[in-house]
Fold this protein.
Amino acid sequence: MSFVEELRWRGMLHDIMPGTEELLNTKKIKAYIGFDPTADSLHIGSLVQIILLMHLQKHGHFPIALVGGATGMIGDPSFKAEERSMLSEETLQKNVAGIEKQLRKFLDFEAGAELVNNYDWFKDFSLLSFLRDVGKHLSVNYMMAKDSVKKRLETGISFTEFSYQLIQGYDFYWLWKNKNAMLQLGGSDQWGNIVTGTELIRRMEGGEAFALTCPLITKADGSKFGKTEKGNVWLDAKLTSPYQFYQFWLNASDEDAQKYIRIFTFLDKDTVDSLIATHLEAPHLRTLQKKLGEEVTVLVHGKAEYEAAINATEILFGNGTAQQLAGISEELFLQIFDGVPQFEVEASLLQSGINVLDLLATQTQIFPSKGEARKMIQQQAVSFNKEKFTDENGQVNADKLINNKYILVQKGKKNYFLVVVK
């Protein structure tokens, strides 16, 4: 398949300017996508754009990743309900550095990929020069006709944000003129800004440039893609751990997983079709979600982190062992059991040993009464650190501690509690 044909079957093609497909099929070109540094990490919504550039490079073209050191000072108003907060220069530079570091993980810069920052060509551009040399080429009527602007006219849009499409348009012009970039890619919400760039190139130089966008990713239930109860799913492991990252994909609905496996992986059509068919025969095995989680986690975090995430998942949802629990870091342990009810007990109680019923019903409220705790122990429905506890008169002492601090108590199959020693 050609680049555009591949995007079509993957569901990654939304709008394409006439002549774009022919251009891509007849010559190897440079094409770019812009990334605004609103944070020091990209999130999985941005991953779609990264994968677009990766597909472009795999098909023999030359991707340019633009980090918006200049446009980040303004903020893109496209389909935003209100104006973004301005970032300080220090924060902006930190964000630019973080995003540039991430982009280098995905693109092959030894095989023709480039990384640019639009601050480099805007920093010495005076306001008067910009208005005279660039602004005169586009009418206010043209700019106001864009959907991204029209939607903000009722609530209000500042001149700063109104000028964004002109500045982004100039990015395309600069890259066309100085880097021979013929195509800009982006999400469907960027179509107006991208077309502004092609129009600017035509009016300023009589040149020709092209545009292609992919759909904005949505979830089948209508909720926003890439969000959890805790916020964005980030590409930075410090913000979203590899375990949490893997769990996001593992928890995808069957309908979403069938869509995401095409968009977020590089598996070929035959493999994807086979995976979907296998999954539909036994959906409860979550074959599709597991493969999706594997491919995307390895892509973003590497195989070792993926295997650690699998191990952690087995501990929580499978037949994890006390040995597995003891072998993981405190950081990962807390990530796995994030949100589990916690109870604090004094360290001295475990040094000398504490009766199991006192621990479960008096020092903590894991059980409402000693009688209830005794009954569950007799039914072999209580575990400490993934091991059944069967002695209703037994003692619990410090040798049960994980990382010298925690005891994981399990009531039944699905109810977990953490005893934290202080």
User: Anything to note?
Assistant: Residues 65 and 281 are 41 Å apart (CA to CA). Residues 3-214 form a domain with the Rossmann fold fold (CATH 3.40.50.620). The chain has a mean pLDDT of 90. The radius of gyration is 27 Å.
